Amino acid sequence: MNHADPPWAVDLFGDSQIDLVRDRLGQALVDMQENARAAQHEGDVESNHPYGWTRWPGSYRQVARQFDGVEGATVFKPNGFPFNLVHFKRGLLYPFRFATEDVSVRQAKLPSVGPFIRELFTFAPEPSQGSLFEDEELSQGRVEVRPKLAALPEGTRLVLIPYACNPHGLLKPYWGVASLLDEQGSLEWVVQPEPLPLPATPTRRRLSAVPQQATAPEHVSFDAGDQPVPKLFARPDVDEKRDVPPLTEPAPIDPLAHEDDEN
């Protein structure tokens, strides 16, 4: 076992799989950031909305993509949750952004605490000072967990992947295990969260601009083609001998009945 490996990670993933999990989580966050920055660039707006709209679902999507097809990993969509989560070995992976600037991960809070977050933290250890939800209907011990989460194997532990980022950079990604302290999303870390190593490049580069499109060698107007040759028909010899003028349009024909006639 690598002495740098945290005991909780060895317990959840096995010492032979920790590097795989670290590397794939780091790659997922780098890919998420690359996609979100490309969306912001192409949006060409003053607000950071394109970045945010891409980053939020992208964190779940990229983690799921990194573990799709990996032996021992299950990619699933919890009932009512819009994105996929990953269960690998005994770890349930949950990424979230805790800051937009360089701050200590010890100050990390969840963006919001709703029913789904409470369900996830039924897979987390109880806080050392006791749950603050014990006197409420939605205490952690009384949360009704949706079926796909409830079907996870016994011994599953929630692994948090907090990261700080903004359109200019991915600042501080970590992973670790924590308890939920209060409705403001405060966390109590079981151990010091471990920084995630990041690869130098994304999985695939996104286009930051539309490339010049291939064009035809020459553009021509609609009337630049060959002129059609009309088909000419000679007049019958008998008409020419009788000096009959050419017929340019047929003579009008008087109708035999009118629309006012009853019969």
Commentary on this structure:
The protein has 263 residues and is α+β, with helices and mostly antiparallel strands. It has a domain of 179 residues. It has six helices and eight strands, in the order H-H-H-E-E-E-H-H-E-E-E-E-E-H. The strands form two sheets. It has a six-stranded mixed sheet with strand order 1-2-3-4-5-8. Strand 6 and strand 7 form a beta hairpin. Helix 2 runs antiparallel to helix 3. The protein is elongated, with a radius of gyration of 35 Å. The relative contact order is 0.15.
Low-pLDDT stretches: 207-211
Helix content: 25-40%
In spatial order, strands of the major sheet run 1-2-3-4-5-8
Strand content: 15-25%
How far is the N terminus from the C terminus? 106 Å
Rg, Cα atoms, Å: 35 Å
Name the helix and strand elements from N-terminus to C-terminus, one letter apiece: HHHEEEHHEEEEEH
Mean pLDDT: 83
